[in-house]
Amino acid sequence: MKFELPKYKHPDFKKEVFTSAPEVVTKPVIKKGVAPDNYHATTIFPEYYKINGKWVLAHESRMDSVVVLKGSCDVEVKEFRRLDIGEQVLIGRSEDASEGIYVYTGGFKSTGEKDETFAFRTGRSRETSYSRDYDRLYDVLKYEKDKGYITWVLGPAVTFDSDSRKAMVSLIEHGFVNVIFGGNALATHDLEGSLFKTALGQDIYTQVSVPNGHYHHLDVINKTRGIGSLEKLISDGHIQDGIMHACIKKDIPFVLAGSIRDDGPLPSVIRDVYDSQDTMRSHIKKSTTVIGLATQLHSIATGNMTPAYQVVDDEVRPVYIYSVDVSEFAVNKLRDRGTLEVTSIVTNIQDFLVNLERNLIK
Amino acid sequence: MKFELPKYKHPDFKKEVFTSAPEVVTKPVIKKGVAPDNYHATTIFPEYYKINGKWVLAHESRMDSVVVLKGSCDVEVKEFRRLDIGEQVLIGRSEDASEGIYVYTGGFKSTGEKDETFAFRTGRSRETSYSRDYDRLYDVLKYEKDKGYITWVLGPAVTFDSDSRKAMVSLIEHGFVNVIFGGNALATHDLEGSLFKTALGQDIYTQVSVPNGHYHHLDVINKTRGIGSLEKLISDGHIQDGIMHACIKKDIPFVLAGSIRDDGPLPSVIRDVYDSQDTMRSHIKKSTTVIGLATQLHSIATGNMTPAYQVVDDEVRPVYIYSVDVSEFAVNKLRDRGTLEVTSIVTNIQDFLVNLERNLIK
Amino acid sequence: MKFELPKYKHPDFKKEVFTSAPEVVTKPVIKKGVAPDNYHATTIFPEYYKINGKWVLAHESRMDSVVVLKGSCDVEVKEFRRLDIGEQVLIGRSEDASEGIYVYTGGFKSTGEKDETFAFRTGRSRETSYSRDYDRLYDVLKYEKDKGYITWVLGPAVTFDSDSRKAMVSLIEHGFVNVIFGGNALATHDLEGSLFKTALGQDIYTQVSVPNGHYHHLDVINKTRGIGSLEKLISDGHIQDGIMHACIKKDIPFVLAGSIRDDGPLPSVIRDVYDSQDTMRSHIKKSTTVIGLATQLHSIATGNMTPAYQVVDDEVRPVYIYSVDVSEFAVNKLRDRGTLEVTSIVTNIQDFLVNLERNLIK
Amino acid sequence: MKFELPKYKHPDFKKEVFTSAPEVVTKPVIKKGVAPDNYHATTIFPEYYKINGKWVLAHESRMDSVVVLKGSCDVEVKEFRRLDIGEQVLIGRSEDASEGIYVYTGGFKSTGEKDETFAFRTGRSRETSYSRDYDRLYDVLKYEKDKGYITWVLGPAVTFDSDSRKAMVSLIEHGFVNVIFGGNALATHDLEGSLFKTALGQDIYTQVSVPNGHYHHLDVINKTRGIGSLEKLISDGHIQDGIMHACIKKDIPFVLAGSIRDDGPLPSVIRDVYDSQDTMRSHIKKSTTVIGLATQLHSIATGNMTPAYQVVDDEVRPVYIYSVDVSEFAVNKLRDRGTLEVTSIVTNIQDFLVNLERNLIK
After folding, report:
1. Cα–Cα–Cα angle for C207, C211, C217, rounded to 5 degrees
2. What pLDDT, in 10s, does the model give residues C22-72?
3. Rounded to an integer, what distance in angstroms lies between the CA atom of residue D167 and that of residue B12?
4. How many CB atoms lie within 10 A of CB A248?
């Protein structure tokens, strides 16, 4: 069965509820970074605003943000902190068109079999059957490889194990990765895996702790800081394998968002968390599939800025989000946001990656 | 690298500490099922008792049991409840030969690389690297297929997922299974998977809940009770696939130990928990590898009766125990018993089984 | 605010749907322990069956069981295995009166504030606010102390900690306990706490492991087996405190259901799991509140046999079920059964018991 | 029993191993933020360096940092990123005085009972007995209230529950809190609790979700951004209770470290993660007890910068670290760092805080 995107159906704006609806009201920003009272905040769903008699679809959306007018018939979804004085913010907290704002959850409803499935998922645990989720994920990734933008959000555990690290490299090399989000630890332990064959001083194949191995991650960071950049570390030939190596060789971008846990940090790590957000969002605006593995901080941050849909070539399509973690709490935390399109899988991400590589590549 | 069992080295009984040690003392059982005061209780390790001038090795041992004399130079390890009046029970709570009892933890110490690895394992979590554990497990199972006795302890989750159920069947059909321990739910949901393609009323591939699906497991049980036995259910052709089907077709024994959670029960399920223990132990006495998947009750029960070693053809060899569960608490609970030979893997058992099948068979 | 039971409202049987409904059909049992085809299986909810023109309410119900006629206007809910040849079993799998069977989920719907609360509970985790659940539980227990029947299902962890063990004893002594369900380990480690001040050889206050402490639980069991009964152990003065001591002194019954994990077992432990079920159910038939602490096996077994309602003095009232465990998976497993009346609390049961004691007694 | 700090015993520097040891070698920083090769990295333990014939103790230490000379007989422990060109960095990776560096793990060894306890703790889980840990914690906090500096690291869950939020306020008001570390969510949901009685739109007592409650946290942030500061929000009288209110009224500092998950952010939230680290460390340099509740990011960040000891009035004393979370994985992650002084408690932090308040205040 060939994979096809579900068709999106716009609301029927000829209906009375829409034709009789008022224009959406706006108010100006008076203080930088502060929205006017009664601002409208976005959801993860497609939203339409009645502007100059037309229902305008929000694009490159993110939840819990505000919407400002752009010209006479377009909008931009912005974080509060990015509001500039004078911008016109959309006002209203009803979602049923009665204030010129319509939040539309039914666009993908007609796609038969798929809806039924989702309708019955009431919770995901270690006892859920994942056979079909895997099969569907293989289909999604094969499709997205050519036509989409696949964002991976990786916790450092991806680098702790020899096989999963190799599988991730293989996925990068075979075109299944468009951008990687991570933190200082991801890059540090990946480089440590190349330079010392360890992660946090423990051999990534044999699990043996190496004498003075607790120096390894510090040595990696200090060496890279001395050389000046990850790119130069690799072009100088110090690193011959691993995730960072594959990204740089294949010209795949990565975003390393700094956190208060960091040693170092490595060059390339972004110090300012809102700069990190902005950089991440510049990729999420293009993303059509997002896969989060074994990272709560980065996965939740990414989930916060990922809408349920994307407008690609004027077509509205779903964004597929996968959350994979051994902890039900972690995967369900992301899933609680209510989107139908988050698939959570409770397993060890080592096995998950090895499965993916085998079914997509080998 | 070909897999080889580590060599066992008996203690050097010519040493002074052994030659000068007294004979072990015994006292008779006065009341059925009650040991005399100061009884010796077994550990999981090889133990030797000085009897008539010779150091006799316990065989078919299990922890927390007592030891009775058999003839003039043999012993039997028995559960307290199985003690008969008049049996002579070994007495003494020191383990250093000073009472004629020697507990020996160093028999496999000389095996180089392996020891080192184990020495460094301080805890197992979702962040442990399992690449090498998998590789070793593949080697162990290939070896045991011909020369050992492999016991599987299965939770019902094995049957909840289409792929893992098939993988388990494949392992049975290819000779990697000598006996299966489980409960009423394992067999019931496996049969449900055959008759209805569901587990607890949910499709094992699509996850879709089927109308009136909550009747399925009851119907399976009631039908089998009507027919009279699992064997007849299958020989009558009602069941065409699944774990029970494979066991019966391949003549692989299974032990279904009843529990207070059970509906039904199915025929074959053992009502009396100590009868269940005895039946399980009759297999464990032969087992050389034990693999517990996603079951706390049955895995812990099995772990309780599994020693760290087995005497096969007069050679002492280790028993390999694997504990696989998505919960660190569950896998570590078994590992806390202190044996070096428990390998715990924190993952979803669906992925574990699919991995195994692929690497051992496909 | 004084605690009051929600009022139960019977269906209005004068409605057309009920008056025009057919009588429920029955079929006889042909083979002992096997139901006729198309048997009706019970839910946790109040159910009514049309018999001789009257709608008869099931009482002392349990889910996943069958219903047999008793005389001309009564029924008995029975496990399949207890069916006798010739008994008339109710037939039908619709629940809307169309086959003379009506499953009624709305009996407590009118109780205002309470419904609203429950309506909004979508999941329970470590991040749920439990303040009000505790307050309500204190009210429930004060009420039930005089007017209800409170069943406690205890895992052995209750005895591992000095403070929680004392709190539990205090709850028994002050009348908040009508029966205790547990296993061999609960009683064994409780007695070990009295005889040795340890649990599994570790001091229950200081956590210090005692030399040869791994003999303690075996010594407890062997000593009790020698004496012959828990009751005699206590009347002989060997035990001066703890949960078993309090039960026997206060004449509170306890049910110790054996499992395949057991050492020993202690006298009083029931070997046959279906005998255990029957004994447990003889108490559950009277229970109005059930509290399960840190035990999966016994809590799920109890949950399986506990209906959402009880008929007390001809009034229908809800059964309150509390499931307390540090694991979301464990508490939600019980909650998944769909009853509105399960309250799950994710916490350490030590703190839970200490909280209860302080608010109910001190 | 009155609580006393364990006495610290300096090494006996008259011993040959110390008198014959060489002076520690240093090398200069050539590039800003980069250490010379073979730099020494600190541990959590007291370390001494031989400088001008004297063994100088590191103070205000933190693990995984470098040590630079200050004048002729002092040192400063610095993060790599804070190294300035020309600073002299201590060199050497042995810890046994042979390079003029001595890492001392035995300073508190002589304190009898305490050592024994810690010696036996091999793992902490839901089944550990915490009675004595609580008793000790009460003693520690009463002592530290007058003589120490108590740092609390709070996850937002502290504010999700009415009772735990009140307990935390009470601890602040009664002098048991010297500084609070948290993030944007902690402050936001605490203020939401004041303005709307909700957290994430759900009533913090009744759990009822309020209509349009998902606007609450955004409204809190937007309002505060409009007003300009948390302090002004409170002095203007908008907020009458809660954790932020208590801190500002009592002049207790708080550090809100920004993260990529943040909405908003609130004023006071630090954007730059290394600025956050520096601010946090300025408090940790004084901290004698650190308590982390239900926060992985902030607790681990704090743990990373907290040494096992502090020099107070020229005396060396231990730093007590408590890690409280419902997840074994989370508490053990902090504990894996190897310090003897981390006490981890597996429970819901609501119950933990209510326990503390009752035993310390009520």
Report:
1. 75
2. 999 999 999 999 999 999 999 999 999 999 999 999 999 999 999 999 999
3. 64
4. 18
Residues of chain B with pLDDT under 50: 111-121, 338-339
Question: How much is the pTM?
Answer: 0.93
ipTM: 0.93
Could you tell me if C10 lies within 8 Å of chain B, comparing CB atoms?
A: no
Q: Which residues contact C38 (CB under 8 A, 6 or more apart)?
A: C27, C91, C92, C93
Helix axes C349-360, D349-360, angle to 10 degrees: 50
How far does A358 lie from chain B, in Å, by closest CA? 10
Question: Strands, E, within chain C: which ranges?
Answer: 25-28, 47-51, 54-57, 66-70, 74-78, 88-91, 101-103, 150-154, 179-182, 198-199, 202-203, 254-256, 289-293, 309-312, 315-318, 320-325, 342-346
Q: Is residue C117 within 8 Å of residue C340, measured between CB atoms? A: no
Question: How many residues does the structure list for chain A?
Answer: 362
Contact D247, D254 (CB under 8 A): yes
Judge residue D15's burial from the number of C-beta atoms within 10 Å of its C-beta, 0-12 exposed, 13-18 middle, 19 or more buried. Answer: exposed
3 state DSSP class of B272: strand
Kind of pairing between the strands at A198-199 and C254-256? unpaired
- CB nearest D260 (choices: A34, A80, A297): A297
Residue B296 touches partner A, C-beta closer than 8 Å: no
User: CB of A323 within 8 A of CB of A300?
Assistant: no
Residue D289 has pLDDT above 50, yes or no: yes
Substitution target from D121, D125, D126, D355 for chain C, most C beta carbons within 10 A: D126
C337 pLDDT higher than 80: no
Output the furthest CA–CA distance in chain C (Å, rounded): 75
Check residue B207 and give its pLDDT: 87
Q: Hey, is the C-beta of C261 within 8 angstroms of any chain B C-beta?
A: yes
Sign of CA dihedral B206, B212, B216, B218: positive
Q: Quote the CA–CA distance of B220 and B188 in Å, as a whole number.
A: 7
Dihedral pair phi/psi, residue B59, rounded to 5°: -130, 160
Which residue, B172, B169, B225, B176, is CA-closest to B194?
A: B169
- For residue range D59-75, what is the model confidence (pLDDT) as tens digits? 999 999 999 999 999 99
How many residues are recorded in chain B? 362
Q: Which residues lie across from B345 on neighbouring strands?
A: B324
Residue of A nearest to B118 (CA): A208
- Establish if D127 touches chain C: CB-CB under 8 angstroms: yes
- CB contact residues (below 8 A), chain B span 305-344, against chain C: 327, 329
| Burial bucket for residue B362 (CB in 10 Å: 0-12, 13-18, 19+) | exposed
CA distances from C319 to A228, A323, C144, C336 (A): 68, 37, 11, 16
Instruction: Please report the residues numbered 128 through 187 in chain A whose beta carbons come closer than 8 angstroms to any beta carbon of chain D.
Output: none
The three-state secondary structure class of D138 is helix
Please check whether residue D221 is in contact with residue D188, taking contact to mean a CB–CB distance below 8 angstroms: yes
pLDDT in tens, C303-315: 999 999 999 999 9
Paired tokens of C281: 């159910």
- Residue for token digits 């087992």? B287
Q: How far apart are the first and last CA of chain C?
A: 21
Q: What is the pLDDT of residues A3-54, one digit of tens each?
A: 899 999 999 999 999 999 999 999 999 999 999 999 999 999 999 999 999 9
Give the pLDDT band of residue C113 (cuts 50, 70, 90): very low
Assess C32–B contact: CB distance below 8 Å, yes or no. no
Give the C-alpha separation, B328 to D336, whole Å. Answer: 15
Cβ of C273 within 8 Å of Cβ of B260? The answer is: yes
How far is CA C354 from its chain centroid?
21
**DSSP secondary structure letters along D172-224:** HHTT--SEEEE-HHHHHHHHHHHHTSEETTEETTT-PBPTTGGGHHHHHHHHH
